[in-house]
């Protein structure tokens, strides 16, 4: 399934690396745990192997998928006005772990931000920041970029959208 050293994405946390696979005795049962480290947020967590399929854990995208990412950043769907229902949908997009969902969210919220005279509501700003962080964390591992370069990559794609 996954091996030590694999770069993976864990929904809502972003991209990280499998540092180890440990066996633990839990109530007399030996269970395997993946030890994941997320460098951008400096978080380490243990994920039971028997919950991998339900967790949404996936490998990071390939270099060949960067064009699809740029396309998603530039052509995200329009968003409806902020409502509590929309907020739940936005949370679900972030929890999906899909880089394309996160890119669509960034595109839509960035477009909304430029259309509003007083910017985004706090909840939308938080979602935008979280989506940017998730994509940046994956770009750092996929493209061997620094964190700053990853955010520049996102901003450059959005700038091209505005100029088009």
Overview of the molecule:
The protein has helices spanning 52-55, 66-74, 84-96, 99-115, 122-142, 147-163, and strands at 7-10, 14-26, 29-38, 43-48, 58-59. A five-stranded antiparallel sheet has the order 4-3-2-1-5. A hairpin with a 2-residue loop joins strand 2 and strand 3 (29-38). Helix 3 (84-96) packs parallel to helix 5 (122-142) and helix 5 crosses helix 6. The protein has 164 residues and is of the alpha+beta class.
Q: What is the topology?
A:
Layout: E1 7-10, E2 14-26, E3 29-38, E4 43-48, H1 52-55, E5 58-59, H2 66-74, H3 84-96, H4 99-115, H5 122-142, H6 147-163
Number of strands: 5
Q: Which residues form runs of ≥5 with pLDDT under 50?
A: none
CATH superfamily of the largest domain: CarD-like, C-terminal domain
Task: Describe the strand arrangement of the main beta sheet, using strand numbers.
Answer: 4-3-2-1-5
Q: Determine the mean pLDDT.
A: 88
Please tell me the total number of domains.
Answer: 2
Domain CarD-like/TRCF RNAP-interacting: 1-110
Protein name: CarD-like transcriptional regulator
InterPro entries: CarD-like/TRCF_RID, CarD-like/TRCF_RID_sf, CarD-like_C, CarD-like_regulator, CarD_C
GO biological process, one term: rRNA transcription
